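Progress narrative, work stream C.
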Amino acid sequence: MENHLKGKRVLFMGDSITALYMNVRGWPRYFCEILEPAHHACVAVAGAHWCDYPDTEYDGNPIYVSTHNPNNTMGNQVEKLKRQKAADNPDFADFDVIIMAAGTNDAMPEPAEVTDAQFRADNDYLPLEKADRLTWGGSIRYVSESLYELYPNAYQFICTPIQADDKVRGFRSILEKGRVLKEIAARLSVRYIDTLYCGIYGRYEK
């Protein structure tokens, strides 16, 4: 099988499972060993959310803290990319592939009509700056469209959450989040990877 990623530039975004990055438990490590990209970078942060909080500020420095951190969102990961690219950091100059894996830490998705309202209003497309980033639809739309502005030639991939211990996150909640992510990815015409089927079974997730 031809390796289409060999020699390419890959960006990883998301939450803890991706933030492990080149750690022995990080899936990006094995992804890179197998597919041999020429360059890779990671802005993923443990505990990251797709949706902003009411007090989120885009400071370009999304970090994990054990207490509430309203800036640990995918939108702020985008802000970090914007600032690094503007500063001519070669690690973030350009990418061929962007892989986003988040959602497990978010609250349950909003009703479909709320998601739809982040795309269309008054029979026309809603300006991006008016999309409500407290919602799944608004936050994911903001991230995807902003990434296209930054890296217009990059292929974007959105991954669904993996299973977790049911005492932490119930299977039905993971299933529903994946379903909504698939619908939003379809609306954005972004490639979708159903990582619910990656082999991680909630019974043994710990």
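Work stream C, second folded protein:
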Amino acid sequence: MRTDDEKFTRIDRMRYTKNTLSSTLVYIAILFDVIYFINIYGSDVKYDVGTYYYQARMGISIVYNLLFMLAAFLSSEGVKNYHVPYHYFLILVGAGQFIRIFLLPLRAFRATVVSEGALANTHIMSEDQFKLVSAYLVISGACCIIASVIGLIKCAELKAHEANLVKEQANG
């Protein structure tokens, strides 16, 4: 009986508190996206890679990165307040982080350029940098999706609890 009372109290408290766990996970996702942003766009390139990074793809990537941060922050506020549509939107945003690995980092890793004085072609992005930025995007996407799943579970618990309270109140 005691565990039922504790569970009731825990769920009842959700009516008055924010979903800080999901919100914090989204902030962590934004943090890792910022680290990705710094690593890709602000990296200290030790060799000449020509004009590879000065293409429309890079501009689109920068704009998408900014939109991701805005959308993730907006979603963090929505999931904090148990608004279900933001949880589904956050799943899409998280999936977008996984897709991004194939759009810029993988292409830059596979692309090569002939450097001055080099005997062989040089990769635009080193293998170590590719693994690092891919890890940042995976962590960012995973945090978004985990935050969404946790939030959806909490929303379902809260909705069932509130329905039960309404039913008990109606019965007297």
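Strands lie at 112-114, 121-123. No further action is required on this item.
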